[in-house]
Write a structure and sequence with these properties.
322 residues; alpha/beta; Quinone Oxidoreductase, Chain A, domain 1; Rossmann fold; globular
């Protein structure tokens, strides 16, 4: 079968199409014929932990039909629609761990099902168990037009929160407003604190999702309300160090946490998937919630899809269609 591999160098990542053997599911695994896969920025950041100097099968989320199940798998059977985290999803066939996978609702197209995985699972991790966001609270999403940013806006509105989003593009903010964004701030690398305080009546926001990185970290702290929470999930600015106002941390009783699966154990990941299936999947199944798909590329055009992602022109998910 054909599969794309990713190699990460110091300054750039490269992709290569290879012919490899079709994988076989082990105990607890599912073999899936892929119909679509979602791109995730973390795989294409040079020197990032998701890719290394050795070539690695690319793709960490997708959607398709179950072909075969491994020993002990009872939740899925051949022919069923499946979506979620996968291993080597930029391929004709991929392996899913059964406890990481989700039944793909009929309301979602293959492209939508592929785009309803990592970004929305990550946003769920930040807004539900991590950020404990409640209806009528204020949520600030920096870099709101990226995949995780859009998912955070949508899930924030699903909870019933009031959402502020930042982006360098007025056009993207207009599109986000159609998804329910309450306040759009055209700020690429900071300068949003005053507007956030004005929007919240001087109190600040209850939760910040920081997709941008170190350049806005200190300002995110200043924008938080008493008992506010700050989730750090990305650093597209490449800045991984920032000043921390310990006085604000102390006096406002703030909670700061990171969101990554790099060191997470399988049981913890599976627990998050179960929570997502309970709290978010029904909204996809009913049609109340739809993944935002920016652009779909044919399987052979992963290099072009990667270049488009790196141009930062997209809003929502970029999909590779088998």
């Amino acid at each position: 079968m054909k599969a794309w591999f990713i190699t990460s160098g110091k300054d750039a990542t490269a992709v290569e199409l290879r012919e490899v053997a079709q994988p076989e599911p082990k105990a607890g695994e599912v073999l899936v014929k892929l119909h679509a896969a979602g791109l995730n920025r973390g795989e294409f950041i040079a020197g990032h932990g998701l890719s290394g100097a050795a070539a690695k099968a690319g793709g960490i989320e997708g959607a398709g039909e179950v072909v075969k199940v491994g020993e002990g798998v009872s939740a899925f059977k051949a022919g069923e629609r499946i979506m979620g985290r996968a291993s080597g999803a930029y391929a004709e066939y991929a392996i899913f761990r059964a406890d990481y996978a989700l039944h793909a609702p009929a309301a979602l197209s293959w492209e939508e099902a592929a785009g309803a995985g990592i970004a929305y699972l990550t946003a769920y991790d930040m807004l539900w168990p991590g950020g404990e966001l409640r209806a009528s609270e204020w949520l600030l999403v920096t870099g709101a037009s990226a995949g995780v940013g859009v998912a955070s806006v949508q899930l924030g509105k699903l909870i019933g929160a009031k959402v502020i989003g930042t982006s360098g593009s007025a056009e993207k903010l207009k599109k986000l407003a159609a998804l329910g964004l309450d306040v759009g701030l055209q700020n690429r690398n900071g300068g949003f604190e005053k507007a956030v305080m004005e929007a919240t009546g001087g109190k600040g926001v209850n939760l910040v999702v920081n997709n941008v990185g170190g350049t806005v970290f200190a300002e995110c702290i200043r924008a938080l309300a008493y008992r506010g929470r700050l989730a750090t999930v990305g650093y597209v600015d490449g800045v991984v160090n920032a000043d921390l106002d310990i006085l604000a941390l102390h006096s406002k009783r703030l909670k700061l946490f990171g969101v990554s699966n790099k060191l997470r154990g399988p049981a913890e990941v599976a627990e998050g998937v179960r929570g997502f299936a309970r709290d978010v999947l029904p909204a996809f199944a009913s049609g109340h919630l739809k993944p935002v798909i920016d652009k779909v590329y044919p399987f052979a055009e992963l290099p072009q899809a990667k270049a488009y992602m790196e141009s930062n022109a997209h809003l929502g998910k970029i999909i590779l269609r088998a």
